[in-house]
Amino acid sequence: MTAPANLPVPVWRDELEHEYAALAERLEPLVPCLEIPLHLPWIDAINKLKKQRGAVIMAHSYQSPEIFHGVADITGDSLGLAQAAASCDADLIVLCGVHFMAETAKILAPHKTVLIPDREAGCSLASSITAADVRALRAQHPGAPVVSYANTSAAVKAESDAICTSANAVQVVEAMGAPKVIFLPDEFLGRHIAKQTQVEIVLWHGRCEVHERFTAQEVRHVREQFGTKVVAHPECSPEVLAEADFVGSTTAMGKWLAREKPARVAMVTECSMADNLKSQFPQTEFIKPCNLCPHMQRITLQNIYASLRDLRHAIEIPDDVSARARAALERMLAIGRRESV
Ligand code: 13P
Ligand code: SF4
Fold this sequence. Notes:
With 341 residues, this protein is of the alpha/beta class. Helices cover 43% and strands 13% of the residues. The strands form 3 sheets. It has a 4-stranded parallel β-sheet with strand order 2-1-3-4, with helices on both faces. Strands 6-5-7-8 form a 4-stranded parallel β-sheet, sandwiched between helices.
């Protein structure tokens, strides 16, 4: 695969207004209007280059609306993207999300080229624990299986018995068939799981820097001021979760909205996620206590274009790490997603 040489920087052409009228209408309530004509040339160039390359663009639900609606072929939560990477036909995947998501795609599709547009797109949970920490935990709790959240590095996954996401965490923990499970690295998600199972959960002290910022007082204030339903991601603190009408994974939140059809909802989660759901639920008013993930925001139309143009940054994982991490991930994929979420 050779990179097309000297591709010009995409610029506005009048035809774009007609070609992308439907997309522009979709983006209008989600991004400042003035930005749409700035985005369209990049969206057009990416879509053309993507076709030329035979690439698939996958975007996590926390990606900005112009990426999520404008260039992604596959969108979803981290479990959905992992499942898509394992089954997709394309040889080239551009993963618009954070580094652990691109690593997961590469582990599940080792013969494909997986690109991340900015390799500094990290995650406070993934960086809270190392493979050596996992080995030390095992030594402290002999015989207890390790279930790691998908928000971990490939090296940590390789030290784990199984991986889970917030969409199937309780199921995966219980599938270990053990009285005690080491769950890492998200302390708050671990506490949330512990409330739903008899299995003893050994916790690690990782936190999501986006979700830990929400406070119970803030949630109560939003509810009182706007008379709204509240849904929250389980990476929030137990005090915040206690204030919510519904607690669930990224996908579960969408399913809850489809089921309950609330007139108003406060999404106690990452900000772009509410934007991306808005167009699916036009009858619902979204109140956004807005916390953006700075790592997700590192992905832009410009670096997606450069990634496709120059085939950068390719994810590489040592074979032995990849093989062990794959076994842990495949255990999760065999369990799948809980029906209700
Ligand atoms: P999901 O597993 O729900 O996609 O969430 C990933 C994440 O990073 C949440 O902050
Ligand atoms: Fe990591 Fe939190 Fe960002 Fe998700 S929102 S990628 S858990 S820092």
